[in-house]
Structures are given as C-alpha cells and as structure tokens.
Design a protein that fits this description.
Chain lengths: 367, 367
C-alpha cells in the first residue's frame, strides 16, 4: 500500500493506493474521524454496484456508519443535471446533514457526479473518492467535479477537494479491456506533459500494465497521481500551469461531444487529441519524431491515434468553439515541446487545427 | 453614497450603497478591471427587467462591455434546477468564458439563482450583485447562493462571494409595499440578533423606512449589511457564529415550504419564526416582555407574528424535519436572550416547538 499526500494547504488530503482497501473503508473513515451520527451516501453505477457496493456498505456499517446508496446508470449520460437532482433526492430523503459524507464508488463519471453533489449539497459536505477505474487515477486528484450541459461537457461544476481517496487496485481486475486501455491514456498523458522518464517507463511496461500486474499498476498509478498532484498543488484553480493537464483535451472533448458521448471513451478521444497536438507542434516546426514517438507510445496501448474518416470537420470545429478552453475567443492549445514537456500556446489558429484533423484522417492506425 | 467593505481575506469585497448606481454600472466594472473581452451575463426577472434592465445594459455597453441577458419568471419557483439549467444554456450560447461576469439584477431570488450559476459555470466565474429589494441587503452579503430542491429550500448551492455589490436604493421606490415590509423583517432581524440600539432605531424609524425615505434607507441598509458582514467575516462557512443569522428561519422555512412558497414571503415567514423563537425563550424562563417587544417591533412594520389557524401542526413539524438546521437529528434553534442578543441552543425539543405553534395560533395579530 502506498500513500500519496496531495499538498493543498488546509485542503490537503491523502490518496491510499493498494489492494483490499474497500474492505477496510470503515477503519479509514474512523481514522479520518468522520461523523458516525450522520448518514453516509454512497453513489455508484449499475456496473460497479453488483461487484463492490455490498463490500463498502458492510465495511462502513460494521464500523458503525449508517449508509444510503444511490445506483445510477453506468455511462457519461449520468453526468447530467437530471441525475444530479435524483442523487440529491436520495440525499435529502436519506436525511444527510452537514456532517455527512458523500462517497463516489466507481469511475470518473461517478466521481464527477458525486463530487458535484458533495460540493453542492447544503453548500458542501465531505467527499470521499473510491475510484474503480484506471482513468480515475486522474479524475480523483485535483478536486474538479462537474456534470455536463447538453451543449458542452463539464460545464457545470465546482472545485471540491476530497477528504481522502481510497484506491483499491483489486477492483481494476474486473474492468473491461477497452476501459483499461482508455484509462492508461491519462497515465501516458502524465508522462507526456511532465516526465520523460515516466513516459519511457510506460512504454517499457505496456504489456504488464495491460495485463493489470498489481505491482506495476500500483507504481504507475501512484506516479500518475503524483504528477497530477504536483501540477494541481501549484495551481489549484487552473489559473496557469494546471492547463497543461488538458493536453489532447480540447480536441478530445469535441470528439466526445459529436460522438454523443457514445462513440469514444474519454481516454480514446484524448489519445486522438494528443496525436493531433503533436502533429500541430510538428507543423509548427518541431521534429517529426515527436509525433511519431507519441503515436507509437499510444498505439502500443491499443489506443486510437487517427481521425475516423466519417467525422465531419465542421462539426468538430463547431464543438470546439463551445469548449471552455477558448479563453476570450482565442484558441488555447497545449502543445508538446518534447516527450515529457509541453507549452501552453494561445495563438493556435482554427486553420492549424483543421489541417491536423485532415492529416489525421489520412494516417493509418498502428496497433 | 456609502461603501462598506466585507472583510473576508482574499475574498473581501465592497458594497456600494446609494442612489443612481445602476446608471454607473459600467464605470464600476472598469474600476474593478473586469474583462471587456468576455461577455457579461445579466440575470434578472420579469418584474425587474422592464424597470431596470435597459439601464444596466446601456451603462455596461457604453463602457465597452458586451452583454447577454436572461429574464426568468419572478418568484421563488425560479430558484429551481430547471431554471438554473436554462440560465446555463444562455451562458453557453452567449459564449461566456472563464473571465466572464454573471450579474444578478433583482431581489434575493435572482441573487441566489444567478449566484449559483456564477459559482458553477465552468466551475466558477466572477459574480456581481445588483440588489433591487430591501430583503436583498441580507441575501447579497455572505456569499450563500442556492437553488431549491422540491423537498427542501436552498438545498443545492455553494459559497461564492461576489466581486462587488452595487446597491442602487432608487430601485426600491418601485417595490410593492408587501415586499417592502417583508424586506424590513431581515433588517429588524439584524437588530434583534446583534445590536439593541439598531433594533431601537428600527422601531423609531418604522414609518420613515416604510415610506422609503432615501437617507433613512441608506442608513438602515448599510447598518443591516454591516451587521451581517461582521457575522459572516467571523465565520464564512457557517461553522459556528453565523448560525445566529438564522433567527426565525428554521420555522420560517417550514412555513414557506408548506405554503408551497406562495402563501408567505420569506420575510413574513421569518417574522412569525422570530415571534415563535421569542415565545420559546419565554417558555424557557425569559421575561415575557422579550416576546412582547419582539412582536411590537415586527407588527409595527405590518409583519405577521401569529400562526395562521389553518396551518397543520404536523405538516409544519414534518417540514422542519427536512430542514438543514437539524444537525445530526437534533433541533438547533436560535433563541433570543434579550433584544439585540441571541444564543444557539441545540436541545430544543419538538414538544417546545409544538407548544409555540399552538400558542401562536391563539394570539391576536396587532397591526
Ligand atoms: N474530474 C477530473 O479531473 C476528470 C479527469 C479526467 C476525466 N474525468 C471524467 O471521468 C469520466 C470518465 O471516467 P471513467 O473512464 O472512469 O468512466 P466511467 O466512470 O464511465 O467508467 C467506465 C466504465 O467502467 C465501468 N466500471 C467502473 N469500474 C469498474 C470496475 N472496477 N469493474 C468493471 N467495470 C467498471 C463503469 O460502470 C463504466 O461502464 C469522464 O466523464 C471524464 O470527463 C474527470
Ligand atoms: N443568500 C442569502 O444569504 C439569502 C438571505 C436571505 C434570503 N435569501 C433568499 O432571498 C429570496 C427572497 O428575496 P426577495 O425577497 O428579494 O425576493 P424576490 O427576488 O422574489 O423579489 C421579490 C419580488 O419583488 C420584485 N422586485 C424585485 N425588485 C423590484 C423592484 N425594485 N421594483 C419592483 N419589483 C421588484 C421581484 O420581481 C419579486 O416579485 C428567497 O429565495 C430567500 O431564500 C437568500
Ligand atoms: Zn482527461
Ligand atoms: Zn432570511
């Protein structure tokens, strides 16, 4: 078991990463002196509930906590105001008060949804993350929580740091393979933006990671979380540096949106986005090897790096225009300088993006 | 014109109180160096819009700001997640970005709604309050913003401090008389919880306040805001002292809820709540004059202080049980000790509340 401290002054919190942690949830709650008089709300989805909900409920109840649970439908569509309101109903009917804890048991969808509930219920209650996907190593660090608006993703949300993150890597064994690959996209991203050595490590451990080898996973997840934690500590509210975490995301979010949040998983969409960012950098003068190495690394994990031909360029550009990374109407992009290093560029033109989209339609997917 | 500084560390902000301020909105925005590149969203309601919206739009536009406006239906029902989502749609379609400002032009309903939009749009943008009711002297200080859940009031919200409050008292001239009285209930409350001299001043200036005399209003509103600001500065997130602002509110919110937010205005409901709190204090041993003086002060403003006979005791108690002031299932009440002084009491029994409800049904309304 590893413990990683996210350093945010009085909002600092620990991430516990290891096996078998869900079964010990109750004692972690006790260690953190969470109130036993107030009901705990566990939010999860209908894929995760049959696998792990009982375990968490029992552990908490054995320690003397009362729990109520809300199971939402699995998938991005649950990150909506409608489902948010339904979770609030459960919270109110369950009698949650200001000392209650809201738990997110699941992937990034449940984490973002439950986190926004925790941020807003009675104007904010304690939040505990219990991530069950690889992708959630990213989403559980940094305190960004949100639901989607039908016009744009993550548009409605808050910054709300958890009290702790209990990351039980045993749960990852039941993840569908496609989710494993997509989650690893964010791990690779952490290497690409910050740490060339870690990017190399990811490349060298591709097959062990895909095989969900426990020690390899714990190392990779801890490293990924710690890179994110360093960036976030430096800039909790995304005024500057934190934007680098958005490598691949401006385009990625647009792809998710025009695919109706069904065609691409988040990790797949940002994988294409990272390939595009590398290509834009190359078109601006970087060495072509930067693009090639990026694509090789991502496709090693079975991640997509080409633009599907059926996607309409106008639609992609239109969706990007709604994206919140357009600070004052200018196109802000995160572009790689080299593996492990990126820059925030605020003068990328729509034409450059169009060209990258077109070029990526001509590329062949390497798998 | 008076300026009052609300002291909250890096979240401190000024309240400007005086006549003709809306027509100068543009220059206040410039003084606060708010971005001219990002669209400003003005949220208001359909009573206020025909009276004051154009003035604000023009002033901002003359200073070079682009504005988009969203007019919601007047009334508490607009503090819902549905209307919240509609305002978000306007914000997105209007192209608001992270440097945009959301303005609340109106009373507490618009303030709470627009404030929660500002708190959540892209996880938080700048918020400016332009209160147009007397009650809003209360709601515009302290950063509490929220919408209602159909099961309970103000259940979904945030703490989000404004950048500034522009309080143009000329707008109060068009307020319906019933709203004037209801708004003054919160002013009186500020005297009752904190400052016996100010409570006396309110009593001595009852008719000037009701007649909306400009200087009297500016003094009373400034004093009311400053009491609230002192309490909030001490306890921004309501961990202790701030609870005293809830004098009359636990019962008041229940009355609003069972009246479907239509029978009582907020100020009327808390007026009955303040009478009830005084009665509970008397039943616990305080001198009966405490209750009599409270009732005399409130009824001087034409505010209700008796419990309407048609209201069902069980329903009132049931609604209170949903209220968020029930910390860990105990009944927390704010009770007066004397005029200008209250205490936070955590052991009020349901029976004591029932008795006060019954007794207040037998009282005669003095007007
Ligand atoms: N807040 C942030 O900083 C942040 C960062 C990155 C991504 N995100 C968000 O995260 C979301 C994506 O997260 P995700 O990829 O975890 O998606 P997800 O939560 O939808 O989980 C993916 C799928 O795996 C299932 N699942 C989860 N755990 C499982 C397990 N242990 N065994 C079997 N099945 C399991 C889920 O039911 C779902 O079907 C997106 O909404 C994205 O916007 C947020
Ligand atoms: N956030 C807080 O700290 C806080 C504190 C107290 C109350 N509140 C909230 O405030 C709300 C009540 O506020 P309110 O009493 O201002 O209600 P309101 O906003 O509904 O305004 C009352 C009525 O007056 C109309 N109106 C507003 N300004 C006018 C003007 N200048 N001329 C003519 N008509 C005008 C409105 O359209 C409305 O019909 C409640 O929702 C309550 O929960 C919040
Ligand atoms: Zn991501
Ligand atoms: Zn009030």
């Amino acid at each position: 078991m590893r413990t990683l401290q996210v350093d945010l002054g009085e909002r600092s919190y620990p991430i516990y990463i290891g096996g078998g942690l869900l079964a010990k949830a109750g004692s972690y709650f006790e260690d953190h002196q969470l109130s036993k008089k107030s009901p705990v709300l566990i939010v999860t989805d209908d894929h995760v509930a049959p696998l792990y909900l009982k375990q968490v409920e029992e552990s908490l109840e054995n320690s003397g906590y009362r729990t109520v649970s809300k199971v939402v439908k699995a998938g991005e569509k649950s990150k909506s105001l409608g489902v948010f309101e339904a979770v609030m109903t459960t919270a109110i009917e369950g009698g949650l008060d200001r000392r209650s804890v809201v738990v997110a048991l699941g992937g990034g969808v449940v984490g973002d949804l439950a986190g926004f509930v925790a941020a807003s219920y009675m104007r904010g209650v304690t939040f505990v993350q219990m991530p069950t996907t690889i992708l959630a190593h990213d989403s559980s660090v940094g305190g960004k929580v949100a639901v989607n608006h039908h016009l744009a993703k993550n548009m409605i949300g808050a910054f709300h740091q958890p009290e702790m993150v209990l990351y039980d890597v045993e749960t990852l064994q039941s993840l569908p393979e496609r989710e494993v690959r997509a989650g690893l996209a964010e791990m690779v991203k952490h290497g690409l933006i910050w740490d060339a050595e870690f990017a190399d490590w990811c490349r060298d451990h591709t097959s062990k990671l895909l095989a969900l080898d426990a020690d390899t996973l714990v190392y990779g997840l801890t490293k990924g979380c710690s890179i994110k934690a360093q960036v976030v500590s430096d800039d909790e509210r995304e005024l500057g540096l934190r934007a680098i975490l958005n490598l691949g995301h401006t385009l990625g979010h647009a792809l998710e949106a025009i695919g109706g949040y069904g065609e691409f998983l988040h990790g797949e969409a940002i994988s294409i986005g990272m390939a595009a960012a590398a290509l834009i950098a190359v078109n601006r003068g970087a060495d072509r090897s930067l693009y090639e190495e990026t694509v090789a690394l991502l496709s090693g994990f079975g991640l997509p790096t080409v633009m599907p031909k059926h996607l309409d360029e106008e639609q992609i550009i239109g969706a990007m225009m709604h994206d919140k990374k357009f600070k004052e109407q200018k196109l802000v992009f995160i572009l790689p300088l080299s593996i492990g290093k990126v820059e925030i560029v605020s003068d990328v033109t729509v034409e450059e993006v169009r060209r990258a989209i077109r070029d990526l339609k001509e590329e062949e997917q390497h798998v």
